[in-house]
Amino acid sequence: MKKVVCILTALLLSAGGLMLSSCQRASGEWHGDRKLIILGIDGMDPQLLTRFMQEGKMPNFARLAQQGSFRQLTTSIPPQSPVAWSNMITGMNAGGHGIFDFIHRDPKTLDLYFSASRVEPPKHAIHLGSWVIPLGGGSADQLRQGQAFWQILDQHHIPNSVFRIPSNFPPVAAKGNTLSGMGTPDLRGTYGTFSFYTDDPTAAAGAVEGGQIIPVQVENSQVTAQLIGPDNTFRKGSPPATEPFTVSVDPMEAVARIAVQDQEFVLREGEWSGWIPVEFQLIPFFGNVKGMCRFYLKQAHPRFQLYVSPINIDPANPALPISTPSSYSRDLAEEIGEFYTQGISEDTKALSDGVLDDKEFLEQSRTVLAEHRAIFDAEFPKFQKGVFFFYFSSLDLNSHMLWRLTDPKHPEFDASAAAQYGTALEDFYQQIDQVLGRVLPKVDERTTLLVLSDHGFAPYYRSFNLNTWLLNNGYITLKAAPSADNNQPFANVDWSHTRAYGLGLNGLYVNQRGREKEGTVQAGAEAAALLREIREKLLALRDPQNGLPVITRVDLASEVYQGPYAREGPDALVGYNRGYRAGWKTILGDFPTEVLEDNTNPWSGDHCMDYTLVPGVLLSNRKIPMEAPALTDMAPTILAEFGIPKAKGMIGESVFQPVRAAR
Amino acid sequence: MPFVLTQPPPAAALGVFLPNSPLAIVIVLSLVVGLLMVLLFGYTSNQKAIKVAKDQLKAHLLAVRLYQDQLPVVLRTYGRIILGTGRYIRLAFMPLLYVIIPITLLIVQVDRYLGSVPMQTAQPFLVTVQTAPDTLNGVSLQLPAEMSISAPAVHVPADNEVVWRVVAQKDGEYDINVLSGGQTYSKTVVVAGDVSRLSPERMRDRFWERIFVSGEPALPDSSPIESIAVTYLPRNINFAWLEWNWIVLFFVLSMVAGFIFKEVLGIEI
């Protein structure tokens, strides 16, 4: 009898379990067959796209534009990639998602930090001699607020994959495969720090923007140096962890053997290595961090010159979270090989610093796109239903660096370089066209295709130093004259006599009482009057070189932002005229002598301007009735494709609705 | 009798019962070795004495629990546990020695197959020749038609080495020739997609080093060449969501197999 009761109980429990699991399946699965494919092409410019289509160089885009729709897409305020992609991801503007610029400041300390994420060591630790024993783990936090569209899709059980989308590091929890994109740091926690080893005595040793020049000596045809890794928070003062490597240069030939840990490889002059895994020891035998880097032997003789890429997070052994599920990056690396994980993969700083030349930068940049295409080629065929998003960075970063080769009016235009590499940007556009060519055959009547860019592009001829202008016009007061030696942001500023300051690429802040550490301007009417006054003066500015207005609009945060974070960013957004942008030094709180100066940096194209002058593109296989679609319409559009109403706080509408609802 | 593998097993011998999967090879090898270890241990050990030693240890452990409130008894029992453990180790030592020696030799041989992966076509690899200092510039490399040099040789005076970067176009087992002082010295290179017997280095007759590193005849002592090495990449085996060195995986799996077989065969370990 007891046996029978046991058997019956077991049967009942099994049946209950089966019913429960089938109920969960019923409520946890989506049975639709709709497909939404989104290609996010950072920096694709409507003017360039139109020209290339007309010239027959982008046949797939031309076909899509002809059979479907091609619209300009209103970008974000300001039109910077982290802000723009956050608009796209959340359907909100910066007031809703809290990303206003690449760089934010803590108003109480005026310390600067990257806007999209924060990687922090453990808060508490025990100090033992030169060692630091952490009590608890560190953290990597994403600072973008608001729900991402794929999180809402997850809630409705719509399958989705999101690859390399910016402003998603560390990736938010997701059911599908996601891989973080722009905003992902290198292993040192920066947007990318290269190393350049040379025995050239004329090279200025030390830190340069985006890298480090490291002097070495060639002795008996050998160079011994250190790879610089992440800060070792287990050591007092957190010095960077280092790993030695040896380069043996052939005494006669332009070739060298490089030995790193237990790996050896040979490079000829002008050759790149593949990805070399490197393990940095933080605590002997216990705490190691894995990364990877690429080597480029720029010159073997007469001067030794070796470039080492930023140490990237190794996707096969990620030291920080870069994918969901966390094992996904490893699976992908196994399938296609290692790939750049740092968000801004193209080493623009190495080109700006003269460490790489145009040819070398292009080689590196083409490798980046080849890797992205390899990921796309591996993942796109797996897509069956739901949402597939893939992001390409190449047009943006190459437009920044190669614009000068296409524009004879640019101060950095070089006719011989233009003759050699003048079509390189066009080639990148054509590669994106090839990607679209792989997508189009998969688009059927159940599929919606969206191809979009976050902003367009414009030349960057002249730099405007906003902080110098504020200083010259009495809005900033210094305790002493600006010093070239002091690289600290806002060094020597007398905050008790300062009323406004510029920070970031478009930000203008009031030194507000109660908010800034030594605020002088009362919030409300006084601050509003000050902003109006500065706006009028800025809009009246003319470039003495050509009489053109330098700034064509200044938007007040109170007028353009909605949402809980609307007051946490800049008080006004400076919109530069086409051809103008904030100078490199002013954006980090420095005071160059000139207010306006020629841009002689290879970084020659830009978009951090008046947002109305640099719209992005939106193409679809379906007709887009909306007159002026914007990035904030994208998340509502994606949700509407699956019958999901837009989430609270989203300010856009589906672009497939004929009339924009009143906001 | 100790199990000694005097001749390296040809790849085909391993392939008789297995597909060319390193994981399958390790699993089968672990099962077989686990069984043989237990049998060998049972055959070479004094099973009766081991059983008595283990029973006594269990009794002493029980005594510690039963008389935990009588300190002199507990202390005396601890002493007996230490003595009993020593007795058990002494009884197990000789049989373990019989087991360890053949397994070490087996691992050395199998490592030639599973320790590294063969070269892949189109994947560059390095050929490193260590030579006498005065002959550094007189060394050259001759390759079969299926291979090519993809960079000039790197002469490293500090290490008395010459390094070539080589690429193979086709799978196969090749002899590459190093020429020095009018003599030719060859070295085998395997380019394959599956498990093959590999020898990363050919060297002069340094006995112990050769046992663990080289699977090729020694270079003549009169040769100006100290060694010829190629860089086979180490092999990792995916098992249970982890990447394993085959020796570690073999150790774990053969231990598990051994404990299972010991129960089945009733052998005291």
What is the compact description of this entry?
Chain A has 663 residues and is of the alpha+beta class. Chain A has an eight-stranded mixed β-sheet, sandwiched between helices.
Note down, in words, how this protein is organized.
The complex is a heterodimer of chains A (663) and B (269). Chain A has 663 residues and is of the alpha+beta class. Chain A has three domains: 32-99 and 112-118 and 129-185 and 320-457 and 614-663, Alkaline Phosphatase, subunit A (3-Layer(aba) Sandwich); 188-319, no CATH class; 461-610, no CATH class. Chain A is built from 16 helices and 35 strands. Chain A has an eight-stranded mixed sheet, with helices on both faces. The longest helix of chain A is centred in the N-terminal third of the chain and has 27 residues, at 2-28. Chain A starts with a helix and ends in a 22-residue tail after the last helix. With 269 residues, chain B is of the alpha+beta class. Chain B is built from six helices and twelve strands. Chain B has helices at 11-15, 22-44, 47-66, 71-114, 207-213, 246-265; strands at residues 116-117, 125-131, 140-142, 147-156, 161-168, 172-180, 183-191, 201-203, 225-230, 233-234, 237-239, 242-244. In chain B, strands 4-5-2-9-8 form a five-stranded antiparallel sheet, with no helix packed on it. A three-stranded antiparallel sheet of chain B has the order 3-6-7, with no helix packed on it. In chain B, strands 1-10 form a two-stranded antiparallel sheet. Residues 1-17 of chain B have low confidence and may be disordered. The A-B interface holds A 220-222, 248-257, 264-268, 271, 327 and B 124, 126, 128, 151-159, 161, 163-165, 231, 241.
